[in-house]
Amino acid sequence: MRTSGLLLKFLKAILKAGNRMNAGTSRGNAQGFNLSALRKLPDVKSIDRKTSLLHFIVEQVAQKEEEKL
Question: Phi, psi at residue 45, to the nearest 5°?
Answer without folding.
Answer: -110, 155
